[in-house]
Amino acid sequence: MSNIPGRASGLRRAAAPLLLAAIAFAGAGMAGAQDLSSPVGLWKTIDDESKQPRSLVRIVEQEGALVGRIEKILTDKTDARCDRCTDERKDQPVLGMTIVTGMKRDGELWDGGSILDPNNGKVYRSRMKLLEGGRKLEVRGYIGAPLFGRSQTWLREE
């Protein structure tokens, strides 16, 4: 009977590294999990007319506001330039271009920012809203009031 307590503490010592590894592994999985309550992440844009994937836009948070840039072009126009832009982006490559700026959370919306349409060079006021539990993002560009604009639905990639 005197061996049993010693054996139990030996098992505890042997199991401790396994338990720590399991906790670390679980924590790493949680750290990589998506936060579906925020637009931060990678989004696939869909062409309004062809309904085909157009680009991947990475949205990040900077100084309390959301900013999005084109991370990958999914069409054959990978070397496209914003020839219709009228600001500092004129004639700059669309790949890597910042197209979303200044979006701040307002309840269930992200609002108060702007979005550039590189196809026509126009900058629109913008608002965003997560749909389907954060798997889709409704992006609305407008002039004046949100009523006068158009929406696109972007699909979460990661």
UniProtKB/TrEMBL annotation:
<protein>
    <submittedName>
        <fullName>Uncharacterized protein (DUF2147 family)</fullName>
    </submittedName>
</protein>
<keyword id="KW-0732">Signal</keyword>
<feature type="signal peptide">
    <location>
        <begin position="1"/>
        <end position="33"/>
    </location>
</feature>
<dbReference type="InterPro" id="IPR019223">
    <property type="entry name" value="DUF2147"/>
</dbReference>
<feature type="domain" description="DUF2147">
    <location>
        <begin position="41"/>
        <end position="156"/>
    </location>
</feature>
<dbReference type="Pfam" id="PF09917">
    <property type="entry name" value="DUF2147"/>
</dbReference>
